[in-house]
């Protein structure tokens, strides 16, 4: 007999962004790629943005819920704030214009990975009211973070050809 969780459909995320949402540059020069990398640096290397260990925050939230600790709101607030930061981050990435053609698909994948991570974190924050959705959100988080890291590595791989280092 299958368990309840085995019968659950995993959470999925519909991609928010597509190639039609970005402006692709006709310029394929090294200077164009460098300019794009500089824009990404401004976004990714920003000391004002503090990304937390969402898995640790979620585990702390689950521990409090298991122990019937009624003061779990700090973790819910932190997860909500983290999801908001990822949404802001996705918007910043999508605001970059004149994306080199060789990076366009990877750029979209990166933005969708960031956006999917935000959605997953939002679902993790639902643990007090809907633990099943929260657990599925945690599984989605793992997939979206992996997707995001892969897209970042793919972009850096192209940058390596130009001896440009961002990540």
Please specify the SSE layout and strand pairing:
Layout: H1 30-44, H2 54-66, H3 73-94, H4 104-124, H5 131-161
Quick description:
With 167 residues, the chain is mainly alpha-helical. The chain is 61% helix and 0% strand. It has one domain (27-161).
What does the model show?
By secondary structure, the chain is mainly α. It has one domain (27-161). It is 61% helix and 0% strand. It has helices at residues 30-44, 54-66, 73-94, 104-124, 131-161. The chain is elongated and about 60 Å long.
Characteristics of this structure?
0% strand; 167 residues; mainly alpha; 61% helix
Mean pLDDT across residues: 93
Task: Specify the number of helices.
Answer: 5
Q: What general outline do the C-alpha atoms trace?
A: elongated
Largest sheet: none
End-to-end separation in angstroms reads 47 Å
- Low-pLDDT ranges: none
Sketch the topology as an H/E string, one letter per element. Answer: HHHHH
The structural domain count equals 1
Total number of beta strands: 0
Question: What level of helicity do the residues show?
Answer: 55-70%
C-alpha-based Rg, rounded: 18 Å
Structural class from helices and strands?
Answer: mainly alpha
Strand content: under 5%
């Amino acid at each position: 007999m299958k368990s309840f969780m085995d019968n659950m459909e995993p959470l999925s995320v519909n991609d928010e962004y597509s190639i039609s949402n970005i402006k692709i540059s006709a310029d394929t020069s090294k200077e164009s790629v460098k300019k794009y990398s500089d824009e990404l640096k401004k976004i990714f290397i920003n000391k004002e943005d503090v990304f937390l260990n969402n898995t640790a925050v979620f585990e702390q939230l689950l521990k409090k819920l298991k122990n019937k600790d009624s003061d779990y709101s700090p973790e819910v607030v932190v997860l909500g704030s983290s999801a908001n930061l990822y949404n802001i981050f996705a918007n910043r990435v999508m605001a970059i214009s004149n994306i080199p053609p060789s990076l366009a698909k990877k750029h979209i994948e990166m933005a969708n990975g960031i956006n999917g991570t935000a959605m997953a974190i939002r679902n993790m924050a639902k643990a007090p009211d809907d633990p099943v959705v929260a657990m599925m959100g945690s599984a989605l988080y793992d997939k979206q973070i992996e997707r995001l890291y892969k897209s970042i590595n793919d972009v850096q791989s192209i940058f390596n050809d130009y001896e440009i280092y961002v990540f």
